[in-house]
Specification:
The chain is of the alpha/beta class. It folds into 2 domains: about 375 residues, TIM Barrel (Alpha-Beta Barrel), CATH 3.20.20; about 120 residues, no CATH class. About 40% of the residues lie in helices and about 10% in strands. The protein has 19 helices and 12 strands. The strands form 2 sheets. The chain has an 8-stranded parallel beta barrel with strand order 1-2-3-6-9-10-11-12. Helix 14 links the parallel strand 9 and strand 10. Helix 6 packs across helix 9 and helix 12 packs across helix 13.
Length: about 500
């Protein structure tokens, strides 16, 4: 079945309170998707973000982002008042998320809701805690992190850093209220998201989620299970993750994530990966695995380096981890993100897994891409792939046009048989993705809107203005939705309901 969808992060949904969340606007967007014949809503990772606000550097691979909790839903429960929410200045620009304001104001309101909820001893809340065993370590981690002024767990006193049982027991008693509050936050997040997920399913819309390959060093995951990672005796990373230099980043990309001890994972029959993936599939229907090539070979950069130039490739676990996942979970719908420099070995691994590959149309005409441009030309797509005009890490189509050379731009126009207008090329590329043989085509909402560089979501290897772009309520007009629906019907991707 041919399908299409739209990429729009939760954070980018319209909202009255500073950031997109699980409220009526999420349901409205689902209605708009369904009305335009879209069958998939792609989102970014759900985890709680820290420094840099990247959803790919969360404090936990399990926990949800507190910012996504609908304050309006808490008002409806009587745990907050409308005045509580509207008394806060959530930022001067409705187009941008102000993470500093969220950090300083959101938790005050969540604390107030917690105090008013009386939820601590209810059966529903206790069942939630019991059914989510990861919550014990996470809630304690966040309580300790807050008690240490936000400092990384690596800078805590040794007994807590090394999880001495007596120190942990004392901390659980000392910070019992804060721990329960952290559990309350997660209860609200998952209760609300599952309502949104159920609503999407009622409209025949599926959720395409995202699982980062790596975890943040400053996370409950590394603190709770350091043995899973390549750490030294001081619990510091021996080497960190990233990508080698290329035309987009001459110094490479230094992500800083700890690398996995894959030998240990294999001896443990990949139980951590199985549990993580099983849980993520309770939150979404299709799963995109970020940086898939790291399973075939990962780029290891010496700890302490300031860029990725001294890194080298190391053999990854390959098919072993996916065999374990398939045995434990059965057949699941998975998308492998393997973009940029893709080797024959990576291509072979994707084929062996049976996962859908990603094809980004921008790469077909951009000489800066280090892979094979021909792989991204629509006439070479296999059916088992997902066609994109771009991703959250790419420029918008309009912005991209202004970055590439005149010769590359001319090639794109000739290939797509379109005129010289900027918006003509944008729409021609959207249509090229939709009419390709790919079983699924996903278009970032910015490309349907025809927006330029000001609407870019993330620019890798930079720190400023990432993850902040937001959609305004009035922008998805009936005319635009009809245009999307007409193209969807024209190219046989599900039709309108």
């Amino acid at each position: 079945m041919r399908e299409s969808g739209i990429l729009l992060p939760i954070s980018s949904l319209p909202s009255d309170y500073g950031i997109g969340c699980f409220d009526a606007e999420a349901r409205r967007f689902i209605d708009q998707l369904a009305g335009a014949g879209q069958r998939v809503w792609q989102v970014l990772p759900f985890g709680p973000t820290g420094y840099g606000d990247s959803p790919y550097q969360p404090f936990s691979v399990y926990a949800g982002n507190p910012y996504f909790i609908s304050l309006k839903a808490l008002v409806e429960k009587g745990w907050l008042s409308r005045a509580d929410c509207e008394s806060v200045n959530w930022g001067s620009d409705p187009r941008r998320v102000d993470y500093g304001t969220l950090y300083n104001r959101r938790f005050v309101l969540l604390q107030k809701a917690f105090a008013a909820s009386g939820i601590e001893n209810t059966a529903d809340f206790q069942t939630f805690i019991r059914e989510n065993p990861w919550l014990d370590d996470y809630a304690l981690f966040m309580a300790l992190k807050n008690a240490h002024g936000g400092a990384s767990w690596q800078d805590w006193e040794e007994p807590l850093k090394r999880r001495d049982p007596k120190a942990l027991a004392a901390a659980r008693e000392r910070y019992r209220g804060e721990i329960t509050f952290q559990c309350f936050i997660q209860y609200c997040f998952f209760t609300q998201w599952r309502e949104i997920l159920d609503y999407a399913h009622s409209k025949q819309v599926r959720i395409l989620g995202d699982i980062p390959i790596y975890v943040s060093m400053d996370s409950a995951d590394v603190w709770a299970q350091p043995r899973l990672f390549q750490l030294d005796e001081a619990l510091r990373p021996a080497a960190v993750a990233g990508c080698p230099p290329d035309a987009f980043a001459p110094g490479g990309q230094l992500w800083g994530n700890p690398l996995y001890d894959w030998d240990y994972h294999q001896k443990d029959h990949f139980s951590w990966w199985i549990a993580r993936t099983r849980f993520t599939f309770t939150l979404c229907d299709i799963l995109r695995i970020d940086h898939f090539r790291g399973f075939e070979a990962y780029f290891s950069i010496p700890a302490g380096d300031r860029d990725a130039r001294n890194g080298h490739w190391v053999q990854g676990p390959g098919m072993a981890v996916f065999d374990a996942l398939r045995e434990a979970l059965g057949e699941r719908e998975i998308v492998a993100e393997a973009l940029g420099y893709v080797t024959d070995e990576v291509r072979a691994l994707i084929r062996r897994t049976g996962f859908a590959d990603m094809k980004v149309l921008q790469f077909a005409f951009d000489a800066r891409d280090t892979g094979s441009a021909s792989d991204y030309l629509p006439h070479n797509y296999p059916e088992n792939c997902v066609a994109y005009t771009g991703t959250h890490d790419n420029a918008t189509l309009l912005g991209w046009q202004r970055e590439i050379s005149p010769a590359e731009l001319d090639t794109a126009r000739r290939y797509l048989c379109t005129g010289a207008g900027d918006q003509e090329l944008v729409w021609a590329m959207v249509c090229a993705a939709l009419r390709s043989v790919a079983k699924l085509a996903v278009i970032p909402i910015q490309d349907y809107l025809g927006y330029g560089g000001e609407a870019r979501m993330n620019k890798p290897s930079t720190q400023e203005n990432n993850w902040t772009w937001r959609l305004l309520k009035e922008e998805l007009t009936p005319a635009l939705l009809e245009k999307i629906g007409a193209a969807t019907r024209l190219y046989g991707r599900g039709g309108a309901q």
